[in-house]
Write a structure and sequence with these properties.
- The protein is built from four helices and two strands; from the N terminus they run αααββα.
- The chain is mainly α.
- It has one domain.
- Strands 1-2 form a two-stranded antiparallel ribbon.
- Helix 1 packs parallel to helix 4 and helix 2 packs antiparallel against helix 4.
- It starts with 6 loop residues before the first helix and ends in a 9-residue tail after the last helix.
Length: 126
């Protein structure tokens, strides 16, 4: 196996690795909390990659054998890795964004409720 066989895998890690590391460092608490959601989304995305076989059979594109590991499960292994990584990023970004919206909604409601609880001062009559 030559180093050129890892080009597809290296490109996947090069473009998605920094995003995953940043998400994990900043938002690991949220990702751990919703671990099962992330696992289900990644599993669904990885299964969806199996449909790539139709594109290969219809000659819509092909994988150059010298640039991938050439391990096939219907399509090359790197396609499944790419689908899992991209599914993870989409699930993580969606969960983080939803959590930030929830925090904003709680803060907004807290401000509204704090204003309602303050007694209104009535002007004095002389």
């Amino acid at each position: 196996m030559k180093l050129t066989n890892f080009i597809y895998l290296f490109s996947i890690l090069l473009f998605t690795g920094p995003i995953i590391l940043k998400l994990w460092r900043r938002e690991s608490k949220i990702l751990k909390r919703y671990e099962w959601v992330v696992i289900i989304i990644v599993a669904m995305g990885t299964c969806w990659a199996a449909f790539d076989i139709f594109s290969l059979r219809w000659n819509l594109w092909y994988y150059y054998p010298a640039q991938n590991l050439n391990i096939r499960f219907g399509t090359v292994l790197e396609t499944y890795i790419w689908a899992a990584v991209v599914s993870f990023i989409i699930a993580a970004v969606t969960l983080v964004y939803a959590q930030s919206l929830d925090r904003k909604a709680v803060q907004t409601n807290a401000r509204k409720n704090s204003k309602k609880r303050q007694p209104k001062l009535k002007p004095r009559r002389h």
